[in-house]
Design a protein that fits this description.
The protein has 128 residues and is an all-alpha fold. The chain is built from six helices and no strands. The longest helix has 26 residues.
Length: 128
């Protein structure tokens, strides 16, 4: 993933400079004024550039824009963790009331309960 980390000043500027292209030359290829290219490069550096602008710049630099969201871990792990949290939030108030009434709280195997919740509950409920 580090290979795809954006350069400090952004991809547009890095590729433009690597190609030996000036901002004026890129502006002509984009059919915009030179200050527009400078503004786009600054916008990319700040992380506020619009995808459409980045796509146009990529085309003008003979590049492909690759846009992706890459999960930090598997989606299955994320859903399982959310199911575990969903289950805990539902159980805590009941367990607290039972303890206040001096009743034993039967602890069922959490993994089995999580599995059951995953089977019986839509993942949409895990995000509330």
């Amino acid at each position: 993933m580090s290979r795809f980390a954006p350069p400090v000043h952004g991809w547009i500027k890095a590729i433009r400079e690597a190609l030996g292209m000036s901002t004026a030359q890129l502006a002509r290829r984009l059919r915009v004024a030179q200050p527009t290219v400078v503004a786009a490069e600054l916008s990319e550096e700040k992380g506020t550039i619009q995808l459409a602008t980045l796509r146009r710049a990529a085309d003008a630099l003979d590049c492909k824009l690759v846009y992706a969201l890459v999960p930090n871990r598997s989606l299955e792990e994320t859903i399982r963790d959310r199911a575990r949290l969903f289950l805990r939030r539902r159980r805590e108030p009941v367990e607290h009331s039972m303890m206040l009434e001096d009743q034993n709280v039967a602890r069922k195997d959490t993994d089995a309960l999580v599995h059951q919740v995953l089977q019986e509950t839509s993942p949409r409920h895990f995000w509330d």
